[in-house]
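Margin note from the TA: students keep mixing up input and output lines. Inputs are the sequences; the output is the structure of the whole complex. Example:
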Amino acid sequence: MVVPEKISLREGEGTRSSYELIRNVFLKRFSNPALNELSDAAAIGDLVFSCDSFTVDPIFFPSSDIGKLSIYGTVNDLCVSAGEPLYISLAVIVEEGFGRGDLERIADSIKAAARDSGVTIVTGDFKVVEKGKADKIFISTSGIGTRVPRRSSAGSKITHNDSIIVTGPIAEHGISVMLARKKIFEFKITSDCQSLRSTLIPLWKRFSAIRFMRDPTRGGIAASLNEISLSTGLGVRIYEEKVPLRKDVNAACEILGIDPYYLASEGRALIVVGRNDATTLLRVLRAKNPRAAIIGEIDKHSNAVTVVTRSGGERILDFSRALNVPRIC
Amino acid sequence: MVVPEKISLREGEGTRSSYELIRNVFLKRFSNPALNELSDAAAIGDLVFSCDSFTVDPIFFPSSDIGKLSIYGTVNDLCVSAGEPLYISLAVIVEEGFGRGDLERIADSIKAAARDSGVTIVTGDFKVVEKGKADKIFISTSGIGTRVPRRSSAGSKITHNDSIIVTGPIAEHGISVMLARKKIFEFKITSDCQSLRSTLIPLWKRFSAIRFMRDPTRGGIAASLNEISLSTGLGVRIYEEKVPLRKDVNAACEILGIDPYYLASEGRALIVVGRNDATTLLRVLRAKNPRAAIIGEIDKHSNAVTVVTRSGGERILDFSRALNVPRIC
């Protein structure tokens, strides 16, 4: 395969090319056990350490904004990695001329999200670049959490017949940002952007059979499931009729001709758990969100992600081939 | 004072307005003991946690580049805070169309700097924004270190008559980047960008009388000394003839009409230490860099930063009033 000389948008968007760029440019050079897991956060001793950058466009969208996103994004990366979130670092880059009122609104939002997630912002950085050298505001956060004892999220623990659970309806964040950007629709869809702390940490404590968790952000559940398949060499099978999807999200996706499996969530997790514990775990989840669901299972007889359609047919769900929605987070 | 409605470049550059913006927008909202110290890194129990963003322009400059800078910058923030650097998170934002070769060159540079500083890159993020929405590449890093037992860098420990030491000649990084950007001079000046780990950590272990350290980056030693004065309510007095300055740096500053006290270093530290230990500490430092020097002292009879000139006169050294050199790091 010829690698293009210039970096393209799709290489940052949860596509197969972004997966390959991360492997070829970064992992090849920095290889170490923690990084090589390519999980959402690094487990180092009793700590979990995570980071993320946020370049979402627009910076304000229904029910949320780049400030909340920057806290919940990193908090959730810790939570899916069995880390109880504690401390956050916050690095902000703004474009010259950015409104002070908007900056204060975002700072208020960060404050509320931090309180809501039980984290403390202990260190930070603030930089300004010339007009036209950045798009309004970019935020990078890192998070430190303490690991739930004897728990870890690791692809290597996944085995045949494990169940795959999603904690709630998918694709809400992606479609929310997309509609807010296009301004072509009358209706708005709220993002699912929220902290997963109170949902996931109790699960980690109770269920030792949890193998792996990931929050399906860029590239949607398609990217997350393909990463599971690639890293384990096993197949993933999901059932279309079981994947929870809000009606308004489904309608918007149909109008726009977008597959919701490629759209980001920012307040949901995929959980891979031993089959015997799946129903109990689901019952716990449903007390919080009645639309949590077992959507499929791991299948050793395949090495791809397969969707069983409502009509009983099967289709392969690959990473997105096209660019879906850039700058969703 | 009327606060302008739009954020200006100088608010990101180690000026008094940047100090005020950080207090009024962020500190006011996120107030907590670790953050309120406004030190280069947060001390949380046995850990030290730090973050920084890098937007330097140009991204390659004599002897260094944005990759090295992003590692050394965060490593040095840990070191001045008595933290032995261990783990780094790396978040990269590039502009669509950025050269893959340049990205690999920067990744090589990050790898070398990490090895040289004894840190491991354990987690990361990579995003791409549309052409024209960022200037080539921005990097954010966070770092975790373990605290040297019973040591901390705290303005509250600083007292009258404490000595102020600098670990080597100042302003090299600032002038290096400035010349590389302007392309108006034939000669090049190498940046001092380097890891301070092997210089500072042994000092922390040996000298309990170290009160405070800071690496004088944005805003130069003028900003760092003014922050010391502001946070302690004490005066700072330095002696022009004692401040080490390379001849070529001095010449370039004179030609450009720039005060080197406002220019960034990226491989130097200011150390505030009890007077009785200053000479011994300096001797240790000079074995590494013969130009390390005691440049002044804390003075309770003032609440400003004063420079005693070569002619014996005195002048007040304030934060920079003008914008010096934006995007120096």
